[in-house]
Amino acid sequence: TYLTDRERLVQEVFLGYAKAANGPFNPLGKQHDSDLAIRPFDLDRARELLRAAGFEDRDGDGVIESADGEPFRFKLVYPAGSDDYKRVVLLLKDFYVKAGIIMDPEPTDWPLVLKALDEKSFDAISLGWTSGFEVDLYQFFHSSQSGTGGDNFMSYINPELDALIDAARAELDEEKRMALWRRCHGIVWRDQPYTFLIRRASLNFFDRRIENVQRTRAGMNRPGLWQMPGEWYVPAAEQKYGG
Question: How distant is the alpha carbon of residue 51 from its chain centre?
Answer without folding.
Answer: 26
